[in-house]
Specification:
Distance between the termini: 24 Å
Radius of gyration: 16 Å
Strand content: 15-25%
Low-confidence stretches: none
Order of helices and strands: EHEEEHEHEHE
Number of strands: 7
Helix content: 25-40%
Number of domains: 1
Largest sheet: 5 strands, mixed
Shape: globular
CATH topology: Bit1
Length: about 140
């Protein structure tokens, strides 16, 4: 099945593995929580156990150095795509209010981005992530 949209995550290639998984989880929660219809129905196994629903479409994960990550962020904003963002400062916070405060204290051009995620039309996503490589 081909979707009209794509979900993309772009991670800083210098992060430790635990940081990449943590950042990815936080970033995609922004998409799951704000895009109607992007999460499907609950799963059920043959024994009758119910499981939480997941995205109805694939999530493509890319990696980038700092410059390429910043370029993807600027391309997203320039195309009217609102990304979820994760900055290096958020590793030192421990709750949502502190996270938002850490972002609010920094201008857009000074955000120390380590990850972004967004959902948009396929062609738009392709332009935003152009020249990025998939995360291995």
């Amino acid at each position: 099945m081909e979707f009209e949209t794509k979900i993309a995550v772009v991670l800083c290639d210098a992060l430790a593995v635990w940081q990449k998984t943590n950042v990815t989880a936080f970033l995609v929660s922004g998409i799951a929580g704000t895009v109607p219809g992007v999460v499907g129905e609950p799963y059920r196994d043959a024994s009758g156990n119910e499981y939480l629903p997941m995205f109805v479409q694939p999530v493509l994960v890319y990696e980038a150095d700092d410059v390429a990550l910043r370029r993807a962020y600027e391309r997203a904003l320039g195309r009217g795509v609102t990304p979820a963002i994760y900055t290096r400062d958020l590793f030192a916070t421990n709750h949502d209010e502190a996270n938002r405060a850490a972002v609010a204290d920094v201008s857009a051009q000074d955000l120390d981005l380590v990850g972004i995620a967004f959902r948009a039309e396929r062609k738009t996503v392709d332009k935003i992530v152009d020249r990025l490589r998939f995360h291995p």
